[in-house]
């Protein structure tokens, strides 16, 4: 671009970054076909009944060379290039099928990207996944972040209402981390609010006050409240004192493969912890 007959040294740092990103994109395009994705499931516990209500599906990419790549490092890339739509369909289909093999009436919670709403195929994807797997709609929860409601709000709300009409439950994920969290509660009657783990981990008086206020607000709106990222017995005890209905975190269970779920549910030491 600087014109012919010129030369310039590579900015090697920048070049390496771009190269790595481009390489990841190429790998990501092949990952579905090569069956490199897998779902792990993390339990959420109802603290009013002390029972496991269900499991959240968390996407894992097992890269043949780089090993496990966490979702936060590839989902934004998949959103930029549109791959998230196909990946999201795979997640929905797989989560519904795998949940059918779990004991009891466990719920499966599936994260949905704002981009999947834009693609306008979400309702169809969900309806098809339910029909093909045979999973009853009341056993599916969809988790959306505040980003989904940022623009095109009317369309998103229409889709949420149609999902609700199918019998699917809708949760607001990572609550409190967005720009105007409270306004979203007014826009759609979520079934559940998941309070971001930054408010659960903070053991200062301010985080505690925020957690308590969100929990009591959600309760008055008739929503269930999950405290995310509970890592210690102390945090669990603190949350029990608030109006949270559910907890989810490493303390009550790490993400696991679908095969481990029957074992996890049969283990009786869970009762001692919760
Ligand atoms: P999220 O939906 O808020 O999921 C909870 C994240 O917190 C998971 O990270 C989980 O492993 C982690 N976590 C759970 N308990 C604890 C704890 O006690 N301490 C700490 N430090 N972390 C805990 P993960 O699996 O890395 O996923 C990160 C994010 O990636 C998710 O946040 C979600 O936004 C996104 N994600 C994961 N799977 C999918 C998917 O299938 N589709 C979409 N669109 N996004 C996904
Ligand atoms: Mg989630
Ligand atoms: Mg979350
Ligand atoms: Mg999160």
TrEMBL record:
Organism: Neorhizobium alkalisoli
EAL domain sequence ranges: 21-269
Name recorded for this polypeptide: Diguanylate cyclase (GGDEF)-like protein
UniProt feature coiled coil, ranges: none
Residues included from the entire protein: 267 to 540 of 540
Signal sequence extent: none
């Amino acid at each position: 671009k600087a014109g012919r007959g010129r030369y310039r040294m590579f900015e090697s740092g920048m070049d390496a970054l771009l190269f790595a990103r481009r390489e990841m994109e190429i790998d990501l395009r092949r990952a579905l076909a090569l069956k490199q994705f897998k779902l792990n499931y993390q339990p959420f516990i109802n603290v009013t009944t002390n029972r496991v209500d269900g499991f959240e599906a968390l996407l894992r990419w097992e890269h043949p060379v780089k090993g496990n790549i966490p979702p936060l490092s590839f989902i934004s890339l998949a959103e930029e290039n549109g791959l998230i739509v196909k990946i999201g369909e795979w997640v929905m289909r797989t989560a519904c099928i795998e949940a059918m093999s779990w004991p009891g009436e466990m719920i499966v919670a599936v994260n949905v990207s704002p981009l999947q709403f834009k693609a306008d195929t979400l309702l169809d994807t969900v309806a098809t996944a339910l029909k093909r797997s045979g999973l009853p709609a009341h056993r599916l929860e969809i988790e959306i972040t505040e980003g989904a409601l940022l623009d095109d709000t009317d369309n998103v709300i229409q889709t949420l209402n149609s999902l609700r009409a199918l019998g699917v439950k809708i949760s607001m994920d990572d609550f409190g981390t967005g720009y105007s969290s409270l306004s979203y509660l007014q826009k759609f009657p979520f079934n559940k609010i998941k309070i971001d783990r930054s408010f659960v981990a903070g053991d200062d008086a301010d985080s505690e006050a925020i957690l308590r206020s969100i929990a009591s607000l959600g309760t008055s709106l008739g929503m269930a409240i999950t405290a995310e990222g509970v890592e210690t017995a102390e945090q669990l005890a603190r949350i029990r004192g608030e109006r949270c209905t559910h907890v989810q975190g490493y303390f009550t269970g790490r993400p696991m493969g679908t095969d481990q779920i029957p074992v996890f549910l049969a283990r009786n030491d869970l009762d001692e912890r919760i």
